Amino acid sequence: MAYLYTIYLFRIKENEQLQNLMERAFLLSSNPINRNNQKRLVHILWLFIGLSIVWMLMALITVNIQMAERNIVFQWMENSPYQVKTTLKVFLIVCTLWHDMVQGTIITSYCLQGQLLMSHLYFLRGKLLQHILQPIDWMRDIDEFKKLLKYFNDELGPAVCIYTIVNLSWAAAGIVWLFQYYINDGNNNAVTYVNVMNVILWILISIAPFIQAARLTNACSMIRAVGHEIRIRPFVYQTTPGEDLDSILLYTSSLKICARLFRIPIKGRYLCFLLTIGSISILTLGQCQFFI
């Protein structure tokens, strides 16, 4: 389902959201004041791309190690010829690599667009505080940002949600299997550590979009407070009529923008709470397994 939705999103719909975001972000950062921020943005974008490549390579390595150690067994074809089993294993590696590449592309695109949206907001905030943009032009830019955010939440978000459900289910099943493996066998071989790495990879790619969404929501909250900041700046806006400042204050205070996944606003404090609950649950499950 996620793969079909990905094809629809990137091939059939032909939306150039990522390119538009990059153009807007770099145009907003083109003035000399934001030159360092522009370089920092480029480094962050390349960091996300590099991390996605590392994740795909690690996922491929773990599958190959499990294959080499004969840890992958097709129970429903246990009595099949050796050539059939080998063909199935090769097919499994190819399909796993393809799946990881697709979901890595989707989640990397989500993280990249989230970072560009954050930079978009930071640059718009800086231009308003420095009075580089007129208030009416700034409001138009915010309206354009809301359209970009709507695509981010309503079009790209569902694909990430589908992959999150799959990855979290795999991670949960892997954790339970590891606890059962330690109890039943008591072995600490290399394959077990590879399985642990596999679970960690699933967890990391599951929580990465939520971290980006929480950071974007925090940036949106910062924009809602910018009206108060310019209202108390006596020098930068000393020639601006009070009615215009009040209009900006009212406009920013009434903004309802945030990052959403599963149609739920993602906030940092809620994300930290859920991660804490998840960590406590895993530790509790481990103690119950070892002490019963």
UniProtKB/TrEMBL annotation:
<feature type="transmembrane region" description="Helical">
    <location>
        <begin position="156"/>
        <end position="179"/>
    </location>
</feature>
<feature type="transmembrane region" description="Helical">
    <location>
        <begin position="44"/>
        <end position="68"/>
    </location>
</feature>
<feature type="transmembrane region" description="Helical">
    <location>
        <begin position="270"/>
        <end position="287"/>
    </location>
</feature>
<feature type="transmembrane region" description="Helical">
    <location>
        <begin position="191"/>
        <end position="214"/>
    </location>
</feature>
<keyword id="KW-1133">Transmembrane helix</keyword>
<protein>
    <recommendedName>
        <fullName>Gustatory receptor</fullName>
    </recommendedName>
</protein>
<keyword id="KW-0812">Transmembrane</keyword>
<keyword id="KW-0472">Membrane</keyword>
